Amino acid sequence: MNDLRQFATPRQAEYLAAVEQHGSALKAAKVLGVDSSTISHSIAGLKKRAAKMGYAPDHDMTRTVPDGYSVKGISTYYNAEGKAAGQWVKSSVDRERMEEIMREGFAAMAEDVPRQAPIPAPNLTHDNLANVYTFTDSHVGMLAWHKENLDANGDWDLNIAERVLSGCFEYMVDAAPSAKVGIVAQLGDFLHSDGMKAITPMSGHLLEQDGRFPKVVRVAIRILRKIVNHALTKHEKVVVLLAEGNHDLASSVWLRAMFQALYENEPRLEVIDSELPYYAYQHGDTMIAWHHGHLSKLHSLPMLFAAQFPKLWGDTTRRYVHTGHLHHNEEKEHSGMTVIQHSTLAARDAYASRGGWLSDRNCKVITYHDTLGEVARNTVRPEMVA
Predict the structure, then answer these.
(1) CA–CA gap between residue 238 and residue 259 (Å, rounded)
(2) Helix crossing, 251-262 with 95-110: angle to 10°?
(3) Is 125 helix (H, G, I), strand (E, B) or coil?
(4) Distance set, CA 263 to CA 50, 69, 125, 268, 272 (Å)
(5) Are 226 and 112 in contact, with CB atoms under 8 Å apart?
(6) What are phi and psi of 144, to 5 degrees?
(7) Can you tell me the distance from the alpha carbon of 248 to that of 163, in angstroms, rounded to the nearest whole number?
(8) What are the tens digits of pLDDT across the range 61-81?
């Protein structure tokens, strides 16, 4: 069992040591004060994980693969005496484990992030109100040219993105009621690309990008910090949603990890921490939900949220789900939930222009009452902060 320890969690390693010391899972269980089936199931799970990585000596499998990979197939040939004489091991990327490693790396990176000092709370807010500041498909890092999209204000680059996104958000905050709760709802595709290559993460489509990815990351973080800090001056409680989009699958993970660490010392701020790209928040009798829009159709969202969040659905009487992805406005009441699709503040890139996709550029703050649902709405356009 010694070689199994390299694949074991600390708890599994403890079980292995106890079984070796006392001779059986039953005796080890009595010493550790657990059920023997707990130890047996834990060790069985460990053996399965080890086999997935190429280690199962009972079956002549001893050639392991690196962490982040899994064994795709093993071919063993034997000599005349029936002993293993050679072996071929085929491996492939274990995507689930790679995502685990990525998250572990982001969490470790976040430990070194300097913490934001607490910001003084506002003096007076309305306890029954929550403002939802929505901005989606911001595509920070995208490069757009007005001559390609036939819009006099159609340029988009890092400098313009920072000015427009920060300015529009500040405008929304200042124009909105003094609600107790402020929800910064960044609905995904905040970054145009998801890594060092300017391509979409799933389909590999080439993207027109302004600047190297590290520069894009710096600007993106700076924008979000400005936005969050401004919200903290307005609201007693600030909820931050950094949703997954189809352009920033990995970046949404490190953004959540970074902002949780960055505002660790700010008791008035909550980052919605969910790996499931469907998000929900309860404000009294009002349910407020979000999804970028890349995985589900608009008409499917009410039933999907009812199934994903049955208790929250049952505890509320007014329900709203916000989505983006398609870059234009659309709103429809369904049975039990209103679906609101938001436009973008970003200009059209060459791909959208050539495809003939047009949208009205704007962002909205919607104010929700804890029992009455939506009670106010303000719309902000890029030209208002130009």
Answers:
(1) 13
(2) 30
(3) coil
(4) 38, 34, 22, 9, 13
(5) no
(6) -130, 150
(7) 21
(8) 666 655 555 566 666 666 777
pLDDT digits (tens, 9 = 90+) for 148-176: 888 888 999 999 999 999 999 999 999 99
- The count of other CB atoms within 10 Å of the CB of residue 154 is 18
Q: Tell me the backbone φ, ψ of residue 254, rounded to 5 degrees.
A: -75, -30
Write down all domains in the chain, each with its CATH number in brackets.
1-52 (no CATH), 98-385 (3.60.21.10)
Q: What are the backbone angles phi and psi of residue 169, rounded to the nearest 5°?
A: -65, -45
**Residue 228 and residue 263 in contact, taking contact as beta carbons nearer than 8 Å:** yes
Q: Residues of 52-78 as b/e, b for ≥16 C-beta within 10 angstroms?
A: bbbbbeeeebeebbeebbbbeebeeee
Task: State how far the Cα of 195 lies from the Cα of 54, in Å rounded to an integer.
Answer: 31
The residue length of the chain stands at: 386
In this predicted model, what pLDDT tens digit does every residue of 306-315 receive, in sequence order? Answer: 999 999 999 9
Q: How many CB atoms lie within 10 A of CB 338?
A: 16
3-class DSSP state of 159: helix
Radius of gyration of the chain (CA): 26
How many angstroms separate the CA atoms of 12 and 42, rounded?
6
How many CB atoms neighbour CB 241 within 10 A? 23
The CA distance from 260 to 262, in Å, is: 6
2 confidence band (pLDDT: 50, 70, 90)? very low
What value, to the nearest 5°, has the Cα angle with vertex 291 and ends 288 and 296?
125
Q: Which tokens go with 340?
A: 């609101």
Q: How much is the pLDDT for 206? A: 85
Which amino acid is present at 261?
A
Q: Which amino acid is at 40?
A: S
- pLDDT at residue 237, as a whole number: 98
Q: What's the token pair of residue 208?
A: 């027109």
Token pair 């079956």 in the structure block, residue: 59
Alpha helices (runs of H) in the chain, residue ranges in sequence order:
10-22, 25-32, 36-52, 95-110, 146-149, 158-175, 213-234, 251-262, 301-308, 310-314, 350-355
Nearest CA to 132 among 173, 85, 73, 87? 173
